[in-house]
Amino acid sequence: MKYSSVFLPLLFLAAANIEAQTAPLPQIRQNGAVRQFFVDNKPYIMLAGELHNSSASSATFMKPIWDKVAAMHLNTVIGTASWELVEPVEGQFDFTLVDAQLKEARQRNMRLILIWFATWKNAGSSYVPHWVKADRKRFPQMVLNIRPNSGLSSFLAADMEQKGTGPLSPLGEETLKADAKAFRALMRHLREVDPQHTVIMMQVENEAGSLGDSRDRSPLAEAAWARPVPAALMGYFTKNKATLLPEMLEVWKRQGYRTSGSWAEVFGTDEWADEVFMAYHVGRYIGEVAKAGKAELNIPMYANAWLGPQPKQDLPGQYPSGGPVARVMDVYRAAASSLDLLAPDIYVPDFKGTCALYARSGNPLFIPEARDQVGNLFWAMGHHAAWAWAPFGVEDLNPDGQAAQAYKLLFEMLPQLAAWQAAGKVRAILVAEGEKPEPVSLGGYKISLRGGGRAVAWDGTPTGELPGAVSTSSRAMTNDTRPFAIVVNTAADEFLFIGANADPSFAVDSPGPARVGMSSKDEGHYEKGQWVPGRRINGDEIYTPALPGPKIGMLKVRLVRFD
User: What is the CATH number of domain 27-216+277-412?
Assistant: First the structure.
């Protein structure tokens, strides 16, 4: 059959549209040794960054930012959709800004994660529409006994209260109904205009909870506090008692593992009991919003946490009580089963410890906000097979900086890295400040990084801080001078290193000849999944660090065993 030159383009366009309409939904699957995120039926590792909160509220403002983040080799941008701009008038929806993000991302072959800024943003309610803010009877606020002289939490809670952006109560059913309706409309729109799934995941709300007090004390909340603990929570705890996380088991134990009674009877009357109460009700609220959205478009959804306990924020209320912190993950599983994971926003010094807390009991590690201390990227992806490590305020970062260098190297080998993760062939080494270097076992060897340096502090003292330690000034940090690397066992006696500030050393960790040396040491990089060798490091230069830093480098080492 012969086609005209006019008909052929139409045929190809129709085929492309059919393919887009049948694109598989993003999914979470177990793949070998790890749980991975799949996009278009392939493992997908995100080279991500999160925009400043207000950037995506203007398509014009975003124009130069899109080219900048593309130059930094991002494949995923975490953008925003705020309730106040999506539904400025009740029942009237405007998705112009969402569509602008879709268009710009597609033009650069990027994917999007959207944050639903709605009822809660950093323990406040600043992103709700005007018609919600103006009707406090229909949309009741939390009532908080703000602790005086309690540092940042008291200041922020009092400031939000004064400005009229204090948090709405999770017990407000009209609020939940309105939020869920708007989110469902957003997800319906994405189902209709984004069949190729440019948007691969959704964040529902942002750093929810009560700040300044350990629980909501509004009339609605006080009535709920006096009622029996919901059967959904008690049933989950009873069924999963053997596997509950130790922090939650300890709170439940204090009252003798009671399986019925009021909140005070089952959990007690202190801040830790308050946190369980808040986590259940905030989690239930977020879960219902997510459930409404998934009824339209069933893509993975998560909730993120302002971390706690943390230094100077030791008790619930000093950090947002009821948010999805690691210690209450079991409560969220009972209250918000529609969520696929819980995610930490990591600004605390103990990055390794925080990752470990969130990588428990089957929760995949996904870090939607972090400082751009790039050694942490290597730890998260190498040690925990994290889906993403996303520096916040990514548009502030240097396009030639360490994060961009790391993303450029990783971009060309992402399918290989995902396959190596699934095969259990990937490890990470990060020597944090004050730590003694610890070797990792891989491929029959114990591998260490020799090097100096110390953790780099945030570049400059911020002119101010917002919730979660987000700076109001530039996000860019100085170079990370700690020794760090992702280590891959690419073949027998062969290892790939990606990192900086260090040189690898090896010891035998398997039967055979007792001594080991380097047969070859090659610089190089990947191009479209293929290894491209660079210099062979030999002679006098064999003694110099192969990953000297601060530039991120790639090295392949072949070993030889002998007696």
Answer: 3.20.20.80
